[in-house]
Amino acid sequence: MDAFAPATAATAHGPSLRQRLAAQGFDAVTLLVVPAAIFSLALFVYPFAFGFILSFEPKAGGDWLANYKRFFSDPFLYETIAKTLWLAIPVTLLNLLLAVPIAFRVRLLRHQRLLTTTLVLPITLGTVLVAEGLLNYLGPQGWFNRTLMTLGLISEPLKLVHNYWGVFASLVITGFPFTFLLTLSYVTGIDPALEQAGATLGANSWQRFRYIYLPLLMPGFAITFCLSFVQAFSVFPSAVLLGAPAGPTRVISIAAYQAAFEEYDYSMASAVAMIMGFVQLAIVVAVLASRGLFYRGPASGAKG
């Protein structure tokens, strides 16, 4: 009877503090999240809050909105938004369109791991190394132009670097592995029995994709688009090494860099960074909100 005395006493006086905390979700397992929360606070929340406040403290003093007024009144600054979107959105869409059929094909192959490793290899090279390789391959004296000239297909080298297309090619190469891995994870998560049932009912391959796979994959496609878009929108090394930093590839990150390290105006640089983050957030919110236009039911049918 003595062994049950503490439990009886606790019951008589109501649940203990530990039991009440556990009922609210504060248990030993929850405490494991504390280090990650502190890390996120120190690495993300504090810098963001500091930069946000700093953006309202102009270097020259005066109006607290001076940095934002300067940005949106200077075409050389605010046009960087459109130039960055003109790079990031087409690159993201192309990577997603390429990743979908390849992911559907790879999931049926026997040596899936080998092919997946080959496809994601460019992500290990880094942006600078990819840019250097493209300069040597697509440059005026690169292999690509020399081969075309040797075959008599062109009379003078094509301008494929130090312009829009050089940056575009770099973003596709470095962004595709990330998009492909995310897409493959969503594609392989759908139960093949659903497709088999559609085929049994007479649906062809396009109908099975349109009415079975696409609705189930749309939430995953939206998340993949958002993550890939954010990665492409923050382009900097490619725009400098392969583009025209003062022309068509003067992206918004270059504007922030010049404000911080050429003008030494960290307040203006913070304002540009805040605008950059707001544009990304607006696109991400719009894409995530549009998921309901395609599919409103639960993502059932996934394996596991």
From TrEMBL:
Native source organism of the sequence: Microvirga subterranea
Coiled-coil residue spans: none
Family the UniProt entry places it in: Belongs to the binding-protein-dependent transport system permease family. CysTW subfamily.
Transmembrane segments: 28-54, 85-106, 118-139, 164-190, 211-233, 271-294
Stated name of the protein: Carbohydrate ABC transporter membrane protein 1 (CUT1 family)
CDD domains, A to Z: TM_PBP2
Subcellular location: Cell membrane
BP GO annotations: transmembrane transport
Main subcellular localisation: membrane
InterPro entries: MetI-like, MetI-like_sf
GO cellular component: plasma membrane
